[in-house]
């Protein structure tokens, strides 16, 4: 599946412009989000979880009160793939 092929660092850096607010940190796509409350942050995570499960591609993330920190990479290819960019875009849509 083409979505699961590892992208070169140059390809990743070029494609970062497709997902404003995301950055490359420690070989992963990274974004930190803030919400008005814990309930909103947790609701966001629940919505993302449904999408991630449907894609069979799951984020590394954490939640502290109203903050959600997300890191994306494709473990089975040992780097970032097109699938990470697809999930990042879906995450941004959910975050509004």
Outline the structure in words.
This protein has 96 residues and is an alpha+beta fold. Helix content is 41%, strand content 22%. It is built from three helices and four strands. The chain has helices at 9-15, 38-55, 82-95, and strands at residues 23-25, 28-34, 60-64, 67-72. A four-stranded antiparallel sheet has the order 1-2-4-3, covered by helices on one side. A hairpin with a 2-residue loop joins β1 and β2 (28-34). α2 (38-55) runs antiparallel to α3. The longest helix is centred in the middle third of the chain and has 18 residues, at 38-55. It starts with 8 loop residues before the first helix and ends with a helix. The mean pLDDT is 95.
Count the DSSP helices: 3
Order of helices and strands: HEEHEEH
Q: Could you give the count of β-strands?
A: 4
Low-confidence stretches: none
Q: What is the strand arrangement across the widest sheet?
A: 1-2-4-3
Q: What global shape is seen?
A: globular
Average of pLDDT: 95
The separation of the N and C termini measures 29 Å
Strand % is: 15-25%
Secondary structure: helix percent? 40-55%
Radius of gyration: 13 Å
Structural class: alpha+beta
Biggest β-sheet, characterized? Answer: 4 strands, antiparallel
């Amino acid at each position: 599946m083409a979505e699961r092929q590892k992208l070169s660092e140059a390809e990743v850096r070029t494609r970062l412009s497709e997902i404003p607010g995301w950055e490359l940190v420690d070989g992963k796509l990274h974004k930190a989000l803030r919400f008005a409350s814990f309930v909103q942050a947790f609701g966001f995570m629940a919505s993302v979880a449904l999408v991630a499960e449907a894609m069979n591609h799951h984020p590394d993330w954490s939640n502290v009160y109203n903050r959600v920190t997300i890191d994306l990479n494709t473990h089975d290819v040992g780097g970032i793939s097109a699938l990470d960019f697809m999930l990042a875009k879906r995450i941004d849509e959910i975050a509004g």
